[in-house]
Design a protein that fits this description.
alpha/beta; 16 strands; NAD(P)-bd_dom_sf; metal-binding
């Protein structure tokens, strides 16, 4: 089969053996696989700097159809079932994993998600543990693939932040710093929850997208941003700041605009650091470092999308065009998410 592979010589389309399902696994024929900035990070590392062996099939955002079942697979994953992959990998047995929160597995040890250490979705076929698949019969594959990472990460971060504040969402203001692949979904979810939304970005087209998706206010990134947020909130500041950048500038601004008893949720993987301590932040402020999301959250998100309440801005490309897609992603030219469409 064909797959997009990272090896010691770089990356590109390669011929690799078809996977066979082990016990508890199914083989999925990929219909859509998302491209992510995490893949660019992997490709930029020296070959010996990875904590896993190369070559590696990339892609951790999967939608497809079940075409083969391994021994011991039961339940609702019949042949022909459309599915979406759940990315985090845990032990499957601890208290967190038992609730579907494999993103916070309590058992020590490295466990690599697909495309981030184990064979990924940018291939014609992929073998997946059955517990890491959710049926998605009413959803376009490109939407399902993008929601499995960009959508789930946004939902999880927002859910945790709103729960931490503990007030009715209708009383709250959420600032989304960075209206990219995750941020434009966060805008929709915050509005759906009932909060007022302020979307921030440097790119005019992304601010236009946020406005179309229901943001109450859009603001260009810049040094005056914290003052502008406080002006829009009557001096109170933002109850929730979701920082999808993670730079030193964005984190400093998040700390300067967050309200008393608010939450700064750091989702972006930039190299910035947020100063925390008495008088460094308003009283009662919590910081959060959410990671990906839970399996029940993904099921809820797929339901919202199937009902038309959430939609990812998707740019579909062919598998042959994945290298050019990554170039455009690295250049910041993708509005929303880039998704490789494979089998119809």
């Amino acid at each position: 089969m064909r797959a997009f592979v990272l090896d010691r010589d770089g990356w590109g389309l390669r011929e690799v053996p078809d996977p066979r399902p082990a016990a508890g696994q199914v083989v999925v024929r990929t219909t859509a696989a998302g491209l992510c900035h995490s893949d660019l990070t992997l490709a930029a590392r020296p070959p010996d700097a990875h904590p896993f062996a190369l070559p590696l099939v990339l892609g951790h955002e999967l939608a497809g159809t079940v075409v083969e079942r391994g021994p011991g697979v039961t339940g609702d994953l019949a042949l022909g079932t459309p599915v979406v992959g759940y990315g985090p990998r845990g032990c499957g047995h601890c208290a967190a994993c038992a609730t579907g929160a494999e993103n916070y597995c309590r058992t020590p040890g490295p466990r690599f998600p697909p495309g981030l250490g184990t064979p990924g979705a940018l291939a014609e076929l992929v073998a997946v543990d059955a517990r890491h698949l959710l049926p998605a019969p009413d959803l376009a594959p490109a939407q399902g693939a993008a929601l499995s990472d960009a959508g789930l990460t946004a939902l999880h971060a927002l859910d945790r932040a709103l729960a931490a504040v503990g007030l009715p969402p209708e009383e709250l203001t959420v600032v989304v710093l960075g209206v990219g692949g995750l941020g434009h979904v966060a805008v929709q979810l915050a509005r759906l929850a009932g909060a007022a939304v302020i979307a921030v970005d440097r790119v005019a087209a992304k601010l236009d997208l946020a406005r179309r998706l229901g943001a109450d206010h859009v603001l260009p990134a810049g040094p005056e941003l914290p003052d502008a947020v406080r002006e829009l909130t009557g001096g109170r500041g933002a109850d929730v700041v979701i920082d999808l950048v993670g730079s030193s500038v964005s984190l400093a601004q998040a700390g300067a605009m967050v309200a008393v008893n608010g939450v700064v949720s750091v989702v972006g993987v930039g190299s910035g650091r947020l100063a925390v301590g008495m008088h460094a932040l308003p009283l009662g402020v919590r910081t959060d470092l959410p990671f990906w999301g839970t399996r029940p959250e993904l099921a809820r998100l797929l339901g919202l999308a199937a009902a038309g309440q959430v939609r990812v801005e998707v740019e579909e490309i062919a598998l042959d065009d994945v290298p050019a897609g990554y170039d455009r992603l690295a250049a910041g030219e993708v509005l929303g998410r880039a998704v490789a469409a494979l089998h119809p």
